[in-house]
């Protein structure tokens, strides 16, 4: 096992002395995140999000608290009330984000990056979705492998919680992790996570370039929108209509273009919004608002 300092060369932590919040589930990835943040010289506070979804959750919280105490960092636990049921992964993820705050550091690794790309592929996502997790200070250990975080915790003799939901096949990410990726490794006769990570990087670079080009298009000006190349115009519409942090789907964008071309007077969009044509412009309204 390499010394933790050696792993830091592949990490993207903020500069030494920066105050950071780290999500600490008690698992190997988040435990390694906190340990490496300390080695990077950050002023660390650890936050454990207690979902209360299974009996062993209290044990995970205890392990996280003991880890924080042993590493000498601040610690707090946030309880979130979740019920089992549909969209549990998405609801739990949203609850964690809210509890941790928008600038918290998370322990996503290169393995998470590969899984996220494959999840996006199964949803039919474009370049933005296939870019997967954006590297940077919020995801400082994204270049590390899950096997390395496990080895680091063993090297430092840090306890690690074992979440059985990570093996539950009803969650698509788990099937990708335990079934699809091993199968792809076998077919390719190599570690495909490295390839998927490289693909995400290439697509992210392309996505950023196209995003910059699309930013010069005013999606509310019909003539400007229709004169632009279709891929850039679609991106411009998506940027314009992003509300509540969620962009419209492809069908919604297509409906907006039908309005721009004069094929419809207005269209409804998910999230309670409507786009209308007013002269040479497109206008966005909340559904149900009065128009004239």
Q: Quaternary status of these chains?
A: single chain
Q: Biggest sheet, open or closed, and with what strands and sense?
A: 3 strands, parallel
Strand residue content? 5-15%
Our count of helices gives: 12
CATH architecture field of the largest domain: 3-Layer(aba) Sandwich
Uncertain regions spanning at least 5 consecutive residues:
none
Describe the 3D structure.
The chain is mainly α. It folds into 2 domains: 4-113 and 129-164, HUPs (Rossmann fold), CATH 3.40.50; 215-286. Helix content is 48%, strand content 12%. The chain has helices at 4-8, 28-39, 57-71, 88-100, 110-122, 127-130, 146-155, 172-188, 192-214, 222-227, 230-241, 250-260; strands at residues 19-23, 43-50, 74-79, 266-269, 273-278, 281-286. The longest helix is centred in the C-terminal third of the chain and has 23 residues, at 192-214. The chain is elongated and about 65 Å long. The model has no long low-confidence stretch (mean pLDDT 90).
């Amino acid at each position: 096992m390499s010394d933790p300092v050696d792993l830091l060369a592949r990490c993207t932590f903020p500069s030494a002395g920066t105050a950071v919040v780290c999500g600490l589930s008690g698992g190997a990835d988040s435990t390694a995140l906190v340990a490496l943040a300390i080695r990077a010289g950050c002023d660390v506070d650890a936050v454990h999000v207690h979902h209360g979804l299974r009996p062993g959750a209290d044990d995970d919280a205890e392990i996280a608290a003991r880890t924080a105490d042993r590493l000498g960092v601040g610690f707090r636990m946030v309880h979130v009330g979740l019920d089992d049921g549909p969209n549990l992964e998405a609801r739990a993820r949203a609850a964690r984000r809210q509890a941790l705050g928008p600038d918290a550091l998370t322990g996503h690794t290169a393995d998470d990056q590969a899984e996220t790309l494959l999840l996006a592929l199964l949803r039919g996502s474009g370049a933005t979705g296939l870019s997967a997790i954006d590297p940077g200070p919020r995801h400082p250990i994204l270049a590390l492998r899950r096997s390395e975080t496990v080895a680091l915790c063993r090297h430092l003799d840090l306890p690690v919680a074992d979440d059985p939901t990570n093996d539950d096949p009803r969650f698509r990410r788990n099937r990708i992790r335990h079934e699809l990726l091993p199968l792809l490794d076998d077919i390719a006769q190599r570690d495909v996570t490295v390839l998927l990570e490289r693909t995400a990087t290439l697509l992210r670079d392309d996505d950023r370039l196209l995003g910059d080009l699309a930013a010069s298009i005013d999606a509310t000006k019909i003539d400007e929108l229709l004169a632009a190349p279709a891929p850039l115009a679609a991106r411009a519409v998506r940027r314009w209509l992003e509300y509540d942090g969620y962009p419209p789907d492809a069908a919604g964008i297509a409906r907006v273009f039908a309005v721009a071309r004069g094929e419809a007077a207005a269209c409804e969009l998910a999230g309670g919004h409507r786009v209308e044509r007013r002269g040479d412009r497109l206008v966005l309204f909340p559904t149900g608002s009065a128009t004239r």
